[in-house]
Design brief:
By secondary structure, the chain is α+β, with helices and mostly antiparallel strands. It has two domains: 34 residues; 146 residues, Porin, CATH 2.40.160.20. The chain contains one helix and eight strands. β2 and β3 form a beta hairpin. The longest helix has 29 residues. The chain is elongated, with a radius of gyration of 25 Å. Keywords: Signal. This is Outer membrane protein beta-barrel domain-containing protein.
Length: 184
């Protein structure tokens, strides 16, 4: 059986492409396994707006330790201090210490990410002895040193005032975090 010149060329080209793609895949695998895993430390400032009465403004500061599992996935631990300010003069502000663990996944260009955190919020002001479950999804942008994110935080056990004036549970806030971070 004779092969024509065009069929031989296509056959040789197809075999060459299989070997070339195999070499590229091995190089990509080697690069992924040699990723420099490590820790990062970041210090941030938070500002937000409470979605529950009697609180309105939320301000805080935090420190976050991040361990990079790979170039795209990281584990986080975050703590700091936050304060929810009341809107009326007769109420009391609520200050608390959040302690959260989370998972960060970079989804676009290794800079844009989504993150989910869960933990506890320990009230420390005004003789308010409550600890609340804290859940916080966020989206953000991170460069080598700067991290900017938008987040929602929900405190399931903190008291709020319902529309009818009764007291309920579950305070939330929408906020922005601006942070400076670096490798350790």
């Amino acid at each position: 059986m004779k092969m024509t010149g065009k069929i031989k060329t296509v056959f040789v080209f197809a075999i060459a492409m299989m070997f070339a793609s195999n070499v590229q895949a091995q190089e990509a695998t080697k690069a992924a396994t040699n990723y420099d895993q490590g820790f990062r430390l970041g210090f941030g400032a938070n500002a937000g707006y409470s979605t529950s009465d009697p609180y309105k403004l939320a301000l805080g500061a935090d420190a976050r330790v991040q361990y990079d599992l790979s170039k795209r996935y990281s584990l986080t631990l975050t703590t700091g201090f936050s304060n929810l300010f009341v809107s009326k003069a007769d109420g009391e502000d609520l200050g608390f210490i959040p302690a959260k663990a989370g998972f960060k996944a970079f989804v676009w260009n290794d800079q844009f990410y989504v993150m989910g955190e869960a933990g506890a919020a320990f009230a420390v002001t005004n003789d308010y002895n409550k600890t609340s479950l804290l859940l916080s999804p966020s989206i953000g942008y991170a460069s080598k040193y700067i991290d900017v994110s938008v987040h929602y935080e929900h405190y399931s056990d903190f008291a709020k005032v319902n529309n009818n004036g009764s007291v309920g549970k579950g305070v939330g806030q929408v906020g922005v975090r601006l942070a400076y971070g670096f490798k350790l």
